[in-house]
């Protein structure tokens, strides 16, 4: 099975995974749990092994796209490898970073991944300690994503991102957030994919809320969604 949830922020929002495991006793490492950004397990070099251990000890394999609250100095230090058709960082054998602009084939389904977002609190953070410029997707990553999607005729089963496209911001329950947070470059960048990609469902995190915006677009935080078999 494949499951998807929102931000975990290292240990801060890890409890939902503990409850999830209690309710799904049959999970194995052949099952996948995807975190839609702000994974946060790769944050402090001094505590890295301790921070990752709870994720390693989960009975399933953890996949994640990056959010804005990641230590990109540490994350980018991992070797880039190929897995299931796309580029990844193997943080641990069963904790895998799905890089931006990639298409993965997992359990017969195709997933397009594109992490990154703007930290609205970056003015309160110090660069290379609590904030990294790499949080923002680059145009090179956008171009790579567009090229990879072309190989699949711009058609995938699922899109997994941290932020969302600009149109999504105007649907309830996100509509109030657009007035609080505004529109950022990554929202405009992700609109490119909304315009060209045919997909079954788009899941994203970032906004710390749960809900279906449309029948094809869902924001996740505490909820853990199972994809259909």
Describe the overall structure.
It is a single chain. With 229 residues, the chain is α/β, with parallel strands linked by helices. It has one domain (2-226): Purple Acid Phosphatase, chain A, domain 2, CATH 3.60.21. It contains six helices and 13 strands. It has helices at 15-23, 48-56, 72-75, 139-150, 175-181, 185-196, and strands at 2-5, 32-36, 61-65, 80-83, 86-92, 95-98, 102-106, 109-114, 155-161, 198-204, 211-214, 217-219, 224-226. The strands form two sheets. Strands 4-5-6-3-2-1-13 form a seven-stranded mixed sheet. The protein has a six-stranded mixed sheet with strand order 7-8-9-10-12-11, covered by helices on one side. Helix 4 (139-150) links the parallel strand 8 and strand 9 (155-161). It is globular.
- The helix-strand sequence is EHEHEHEEEEEHEHHEEEE
Low-confidence parts lasting 5 or more residues at pLDDT below 50? none
What's the number of domains?
1
State the helix count: 6
Based on secondary structure, the structural category is alpha/beta
Record field, number of beta strands: 13
Mean pLDDT: 94
Q: Order of strands across the biggest sheet?
A: 4-5-6-3-2-1-13
Largest sheet: 7 strands, mixed
Q: Strand-residue fraction?
A: 25-35%
Helix content: 10-25%
Gyration radius, in Å: 16 Å
Q: Give the terminus-to-terminus CA distance.
A: 7 Å
- Quickly name the level 1 CATH class: Alpha Beta
- Overall geometry comes to globular
The third-level CATH topology is Purple Acid Phosphatase, chain A, domain 2
Overall CATH architecture: 4-Layer Sandwich
């Amino acid at each position: 099975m494949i499951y998807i949830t929102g931000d975990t922020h290292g240990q801060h929002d890890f409890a939902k995974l503990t409850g999830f495991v209690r309710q799904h006793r049959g999970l194995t490492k052949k099952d996948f749990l995807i975190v839609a950004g702000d994974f946060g397990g790769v944050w402090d070099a001094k505590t890295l092994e301790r921070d990752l251990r709870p994720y390693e000890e989960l009975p399933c394999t953890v996949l994640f796209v990056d959010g804005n609250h990641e230590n990109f100095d540490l994350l980018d230090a991992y070797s880039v490898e190929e897995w299931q058709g796309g580029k990844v960082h193997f943080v641990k054998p069963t904790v895998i970073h799905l890089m931006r602009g990639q298409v993965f084939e997992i359990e017969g389904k195709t997933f397009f991944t594109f992490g990154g977002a703007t930290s609205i609190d970056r003015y309160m953070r110090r660069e290379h300690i609590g904030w990294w410029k790499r949080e923002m997707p680059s145009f090179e990553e956008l171009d790579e994503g567009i090229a990879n999607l072309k190989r699949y005729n711009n058609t995938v089963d699922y899109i997994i991102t941290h932020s969302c496209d600009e149109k999504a911001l105007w649907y309830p329950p996100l509509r109030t957030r657009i007035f609080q947070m505004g529109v950022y470059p990554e929202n405009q960048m992700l609109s490119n994919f909304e315009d060209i990609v045919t997909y079954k469902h788009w899941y994203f995190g970032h906004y710390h809320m749960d809900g279906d915006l449309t029948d094809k677009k869902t924001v996740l935080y505490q909820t853990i969604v199972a994809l259909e078999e």
